[in-house]
């Protein structure tokens, strides 16, 4: 594992020479190195408290892939005065995410969990859209910092009581709800769970496309990853108290899906749809069944690609219209007919249509939810219906309608098509390798 981390560290000098495409090439090369590396049932490739297992394997590959696509999507920054600093922020985000997903010690994971905020904050502040980005950056910072302090206290308590901070250590049995709450609140804010979600739409709307991509594609997944890791430490706590988070997710995903239908901003709608999907992902994890855990994991991967792709599409139209409003982003089928297919594919995959990985994951999560509580079926019907509604709403409002100029026509760049295809292909190609998940 150390060889991959050293590979990333030795890329640092390239950031200040400003070789954008060379850095992208090395990111993709690193991703291919990870792909050919074996996937392990429990921590393998262990060196200096770093290791890879089934949970972290896919998320590390996703981190490197989205980081490379962040650079590809930010062509407007290329050649500007601060382009080297932007590359450095992307690089810091990538390395902190890789280290979160591969460390075996809680305190190191906590350190990089907090550290990942700094480069994202700099990206929002430096390349965001409106002056309101100052407020959204503060929302992001203080929500995460305030909620993650209890987690630090839990980690200190575990070290003082048991003398270890490893994820594979047996910490005995605890039945304290306060312990459970303090352990999970940081991850619930990051996920984000309904009622802890107010920072997310603000951060998304004010962030540049690269910030939105990494935020939706990976920083939300840290919450799910942390819950999965801590679930293996205190299973009895989750069995006793997961109904509390499950209830919030169940109601929240239905309410947030309704909130999506009243949005006037394209990015805001995609941000709220992320909350609805991650609430569903959380319900799969809290059911603590094999179907639920695998379904949640696949939904994290699928949502990371699909949501990131939708933010890229929103940015493609923003670069031409200079607005994210639904009232101006209309008639895109006439204005950019070649992009309509991409909009259709991503909106379909966003509402979990086959043959996407989102479809498989949603079926698994629905099974696990019904196993956990049979009354979930009523909520599942509403969730599926409203998810389809806001995905149709997004597609039909942007693509159809009367375009506001009489004669105008635009083609997408090769860079934009490459960006969308790289997001799209893994969404249904992963299904071909589904058998390796169940061995």
UniProtKB/TrEMBL annotation:
It is found in: Mitochondrion membrane. Core subunit of the mitochondrial membrane respiratory chain NADH dehydrogenase (Complex I) that is believed to belong to the minimal assembly required for catalysis. Complex I functions in the transfer of electrons from NADH to the respiratory chain. The immediate electron acceptor for the enzyme is believed to be ubiquinone. Core subunit of the mitochondrial membrane respiratory chain NADH dehydrogenase (Complex I) which catalyzes electron transfer from NADH through the respiratory chain, using ubiquinone as an electron acceptor. Essential for the catalytic activity and assembly of complex I. It is a multi-pass membrane protein. The keyword Membrane applies. Residues 1-99 form the NADH:ubiquinone oxidoreductase chain 4 N-terminal domain. It comes from Homalodisca vitripennis (Glassy-winged sharpshooter). It catalyses: a ubiquinone + NADH + 5 H(+)(in) = a ubiquinol + NAD(+) + 4 H(+)(out). It is an enzyme of class 7 (translocase). Residues 105-390 form the NADH:quinone oxidoreductase/Mrp antiporter transmembrane domain. The chain crosses the membrane at residues 26-50, 57-78, 84-103, 110-129, 135-159, 171-189, 209-231, 243-264, 270-289, 296-318, 330-349, 370-397, 417-438. GO terms for molecular function: NADH dehydrogenase (ubiquinone) activity; NADH dehydrogenase activity; ubiquinone binding. The keyword Hydrolase does not apply. Its EC number is 7.1.1.2. This is NADH-ubiquinone oxidoreductase chain 4. Keywords: Electron transport, Membrane, Mitochondrion, NAD, Respiratory chain, Translocase, Transmembrane, Transmembrane helix, Transport, Ubiquinone. Belongs to the complex I subunit 4 family. PANTHER family: NADH-UBIQUINONE OXIDOREDUCTASE CHAIN 4. GO terms for biological process: ATP synthesis coupled electron transport; electron transport coupled proton transport. Pfam families: Oxidored_q5_N (PF01059), Proton_antipo_M (PF00361). GO terms for cellular component: mitochondrial membrane.
